[in-house]
Fold this sequence. Notes:
The structure holds two protein chains of two kinds.
Chain A: H1 7-11, E1 16-19, H2 21-34, E2 36-43, E3 46-52, E4 78-87, E5 90-95, E6 105-108, H3 112-126, H4 132-139, E7 141-146, E8 172-176, E9 182-186, H5 189-197, H6 210-222, H7 230-237, H8 245-250, H9 258-262, E10 269-276, E11 279-286, H10 307-326, H11 336-340, H12 347-356
Parallel strand pairs in A: 2-6, 6-7, 7-8
Antiparallel strand pairs in A: 1-9, 2-3, 4-5, 4-11, 8-9, 10-11
Helix pairs in contact in A: 3-4, 7-12
Chain B: E1 8-19, E2 22-29, H1 32-37, E3 45-50, E4 54-59, E5 70-75, H2 79-87, E6 93-100, H3 106-109, E7 113-119, H4 123-135, E8 143-149, H5 158-166, E9 171-176, E10 186-187, H6 190-198, E11 205-210, H7 213-226, E12 233-236, E13 252-253, E14 256-257, H8 258-261, E15 264-266, H9 267-272
Parallel strand pairs in B: 7-8, 7-11, 8-9, 9-10, 11-12
Antiparallel strand pairs in B: 1-2, 1-6, 2-5, 3-4, 3-6, 12-15, 13-14
Helix pairs in contact in B: 6-7
Amino acid sequence: MILSSNTNSNEMNLTTYITDPAGLEQFYSAVIGAYETYGPVETFGKFEFRKITSLAGCNPDPPILSSMSVKALFFPRSAKVLRYRTTSSGTELSDTAEDPLAGKRVILGVRHCDARALEVLDRVYKWDYIDTDYLNRRANTVLISTRCDQAAAHCFCTSLDYDVEHLDALDVAIVRGTDGKIYLQARTEKGEQFLKQHPPGPADAAGTSAEQLRKQYVTFENSFRLKMNYKEINGQMQNKFESPAFEEASSTCISCNTCAFVCPTCHCFKISDERIRDEGVRYKSYDSCNNIYFTLMAGGHNPRPVKYRRWRQRAMHKFVYYKERFDLNLCVGCGKCTVSCPVNISIFEVANRVAASMQ
Amino acid sequence: MEQLLVPTLCTIERIVQETPDIRTYRLKFKEETLMERFSWLPGQFVEFSLAGSGECTFCIASSATRKGYFDCSIKRAGVVTADIHNDLDEGDSVGIRGPYGNWFPLEDLKAKNLLFIGGGIGLAPLRSLIQYAIDHRNEYKEFSILYGARTSADLCYKEEIEEWKANKSLKVILTIDKPEDTWNENVGVVPKILEEVVKPVVQNTKVITCGPPIMIKYTLLALDRLGFAPKDVITTLEMKMQCGLGKCGRCNIGSTYVCKDGPVFTYEQLKKLPDEF
């Protein structure tokens, strides 16, 4: 990969600001004071995105892989669709209260993989029927995050269609220079406007930060343990539908669905009713294709009755089908599913195994 | 998205007990202006919800050329359909979202011979197109309907079938799996009757079929033997669906969304999909 300074930013007229660790902390505090802000808060050793009112208790630069995906702030785990009441005169339906996630807000500490996952989800929510709730939440959110310095054990984001310098999924990318300085790069027009209003330090008008940013990119890219040639994997997997590798790779899966819930791009949901006497609520909640009930039809027919077929759907959707349909990969290589899997199934390994298998 | 999932209330105008386990629900929007604006094409489906039980996907079993109502034929098969059968009476309200999905390729069918092949509840989606085609009869050539069920009691739309039989411009062939004392028509499974009795003309004919998977499987083989090209055989898929909007991921076959790209497919299109169903 050619690393030619940050030409992207220059072309787009996006500004980089220079500050130091103390300045960054002040910047965070100013943001938290001015906006509804969410950030990674530690709970039972995992970081979850919660609303914060100060930096206390929040780590805007949490260890990679130990945070939950930010998708829940755009695609809630469980959302109320409607309320209903059955009376003697019939059924009454009522919409639920206003969307609690619709306001202007800032989210700190979103890893770049997680932010890229939102770009991937944009495609399905913009396709045909428009999910306006989701798109409003996207439009009203500014994503600010520290650039990873070092890949974690299960990271492979750089392998998946992603240019290491392309950080546009974040509105503001924070880079720690080896010179001890902190660089805040506006990566989108939204980020540019945001930083203009809340300048964290002097703007880098002369472009002296370019060398520092480049060094950081190189160090980061060299730190990956896992690498795959995605184009090759995609090509090979296309005709491996009947591969025995799906069965081998998924044999230890306990169908707990954790991978789908922690995955930043998994977006399958179910619609279910909860009724108490004559009143009830209809919910839209996360679901997973690894769930045996996912495709079970009334009358008992199930096209994916066995585990390997469900795993095949998962792996093929991630690495082949979504790409075919929406031209982006449905896996961003964040490694969250792998670290959360109770039986240590690695999606990286499954993809490689299937790609390398005999048909 | 949540807004898109909110149904609109409809009233059940009439319930017809078609077979021991199939009922047809004639529905009308509570707001009359909505009923006038509600338009669909044969092959499309709705999400039908019974508050407290959940939502189910049903094809619209009637044609929009018959104004002021729409029909859903529902077989008692699972949890929600059992609740629908047990709890709903004429005059009750249900929620409806739709219409969703694609429709039968009406343009391609013009000036063609139409051969409908249905089995059991599989006649429901075909009925929408049959009614539509009857109401535009002069746009089509020969018009035949082959319909089969396990027993004579399991045949849907018995009254309407009598009307079809009385209509001189249609050919109706009925069959049941095993002989019955009072049954004077064909006996044998649909694919067998297709090859041995119907012996359809292949030239300029489009086949529209729907039925249980086992019937479809052997019917496709029979059609192949008769010389029909896969592009001239059209079917509508039954898949587990929930949102109907191309979002929830449930009906995916490969990169195809059955709820958006389907449920109507030609056999030629189906052959290109991963062999999952």
